[in-house]
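ok new one. same drill as before - structure tokens go in, u give me an amino acid for every spot. 271 of them this time. try not to just spam alanines like last time pls lmao
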């Protein structure tokens, strides 16, 4: 695994890379509260057939965040598009998870001619939903700021547990704890939940028609407490995609069941 940095429209972004440039590139777009590290185990499973590139959004992982940066869906999308541009990727596959469907798919649609395939994991690409309970807590004036304080690690792990079907893997807890120990990341999560309404996903919803026809697989952890299972079927139908359910995974199937997600990806690319 290689770590590197690149300037993206005035920002310095960190990314991780697995595999070699001789294979097709797969961009891995992360959500909250992670960094590119969330894709590590999946990348290890696929590095023989893809050059996998996992970036850190501003304020997450090892990427710094400038003062005044807007943690909005559109701002993250602009950064994603700039990252593709900075790496001079003529063609790429794309994997999205959590909020990254909202920020990456609209720009992927603009680059449809460069897009080889889509791998979609437990992400939201529609409007007309309501913020989940954790997001609502961040949106409350006083409680939201209190939630940006660094918690004891035991409490931190307890808060994460509902997102998984079983105990979260230790490697993930260790990596996320390093990220979550940084105040900039805790504040970035609060700002994102406060600055984005469901309507901010309208561009992603509009992009689905343009992306229909791109080879796509939806992989869904069925024990997800944040995004209702009905959105798996809606996403697959909108994109005419194959749908793989992972019953024994929660919101993070690539963390809990990387081999199953990798198998779905290999099936996609073997079409």
């Amino acid at each position: 695994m290689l770590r590197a940095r690149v300037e993206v429209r005035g920002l310095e972004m960190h990314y991780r890379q697995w595999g070699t440039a001789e294979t097709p590139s797969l961009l891995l777009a992360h959500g909250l509260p992670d960094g590119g590290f969330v894709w590590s185990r999946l990348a290890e499973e696929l590095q023989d057939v893809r050059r996998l590139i996992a970036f850190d959004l501003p304020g997450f992982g090892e990427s710094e965040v400038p003062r005044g940066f807007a943690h909005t869906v559109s701002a993250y999308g602009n950064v994603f598009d700039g990252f593709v541009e900075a790496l001079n990727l003529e063609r790429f596959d794309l994997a999205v998870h959590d909020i990254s469907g909202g920020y990456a798919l609209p720009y992927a649609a603009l680059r449809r001619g460069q897009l080889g395939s889509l791998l979609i994991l437990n992400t939201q690409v529609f409007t007309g939903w309501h913020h989940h309970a954790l997001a609502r807590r961040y949106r409350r004036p006083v409680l939201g700021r209190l939630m940006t304080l660094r918690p004891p690690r035991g409490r931190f792990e307890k808060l994460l547990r509902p997102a998984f079907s079983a105990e979260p893997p230790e490697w993930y807890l260790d990596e996320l704890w390093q990220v979550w120990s940084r105040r900039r990341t805790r504040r970035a999560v609060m700002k994102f939940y406060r600055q984005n309404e469901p309507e901010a996903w309208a561009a992603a919803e509009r992009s689905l028609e343009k992306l229909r026809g791109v080879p796509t697989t939806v992989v869904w952890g069925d024990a997800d407490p944040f995004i209702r299972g009905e959105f798996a079927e809606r996403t697959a139908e909108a994109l005419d995609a194959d749908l793989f359910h992972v019953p024994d995974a929660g919101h993070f199937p690539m963390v809990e069941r990387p081999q199953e997600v990798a198998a779905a990806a290999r099936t996609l690319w073997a079409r």
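The longest strand covers residues 115-123. and btw The chain has a mean pLDDT of 97.
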